[in-house]
Design goal:
single chain, 288 residues, alpha/beta, Spore Coat Polysaccharide Biosynthesis Protein SpsA, Chain A, eight-stranded mixed sheet, 10 helices, globular
Length: 288
């Protein structure tokens, strides 16, 4: 059996689209859909779908919500996604087919930006998701480790770890635990998940500080360096392939400066390990 878990928070306008996109997938195996959410508005929308099991969590954050949902999930395979994104047709069956191998622990989906490319932040979202796709494909080819995307991935339930509630990047933590258990993570580039990325700089900083900073937090928790400014900088030259005109070149230059500023903020963050999730997680409104 497959358990599809959708975590959501204050997303009544997008949760229906997320659920419909799952229902529109052609999944041959028996499955259940679990929506876990703390707020009444989103819960009310989710309950409109009879095929969905809803769980109201205590609002302690996504890691805590996932711990609850996984404990109630009946499936041997879990598919995790969010209430502010939607999956493409046949995306879920591709994940299920790929995870059946005995040595496969998890399968990552492929995020696709729905932001307009004719704006600076839309251009950033497009090139960064495309680069992530290319790197995952290359990692598979050369048998190098990579991490799942939290927007969409499948994992065998027996490998799902108990998540510390203060986690910012639960996808990185889960991925590390899969590898630690001796299993492989593979990539399904045909399992598309459509994502709206930040449309203003303030939200962009919030989201990237949370995701990139979350990997620094993981290093403090388990002592493993997953992401750093040095590692990011080494691949900067790849982005030049997306430059089509002077405007693109300027936007790329601003992106480089912004990433430097971002990592300055990340390295200034201290004491993150012992803070509760609701004290360090900042909501990004423009992605809803």
């Amino acid at each position: 059996m497959i358990s599809i878990i959708i975590t959501s928070y204050k997303e009544p306008k997008t949760i229906g689209r997320a659920i419909k996109s799952v229902l529109n997938n052609n999944i041959k195996e028996e499955y259940e859909i679990i929506v876990v959410v703390p707020d009444e508005a989103t819960l009310k929308e989710a309950k409109k779908y009879k095929q969905v099991k809803t769980i109201k969590d205590k609002g302690k954050g996504k890691p805590a919500a996932l711990n609850i949902a996984v404990s109630e999930a009946k499936g041997e395979i879990l598919i995790l996604t969010d209430g502010d994104v939607y999956v493409g047709k046949n995306s879920l069956s591709q994940l299920v087919n790929k995870i059946k191998g005995p040595d496969i622990g998890a399968v990552s989906g492929r995020p696709v930006s729905i932001n307009l490319r004719n704006t600076m932040l839309g251009f950033w979202a497009y090139i960064l998701t495309e680069i992530a796709n290319k790197r995952r494909l290359k990692a598979i080819k050369i048998k190098k480790r990579f991490f799942c995307s939290g927007y969409l991935f499948a994992i065998k339930k027996k490998l799902f770890p108990k998540l510390p509630e203060e986690l910012l990047s639960e996808d990185g933590f889960i991925s590390h635990k899969v590898y630690e258990s001796g299993y492989k993570i593979i990539y399904s580039d045909r399992s598309l998940v459509y994502v709206k990325y930040p449309s203003n700089f303030s939200d962009w900083i919030k989201q990237k500080r949370r995701s990139a900073g979350g990997y620094k937090q993981i290093k403090k928790l388990i002592g493993v360096e997953m992401r750093s400014f040095r590692k990011e900088s080494s691949g900067a030259i790849e982005l030049l392939a997306f430059v089509k005109n002077l405007k693109n070149l300027f936007w790329l230059f601003v992106l480089f400066l912004s990433r430097i500023y971002l990592w300055v903020l990340i390295y200034k963050d201290i004491g993150i390990k012992n803070k509760k999730h609701d004290k360090i997680w900042l909501r990004v409104e423009s992605t809803k």
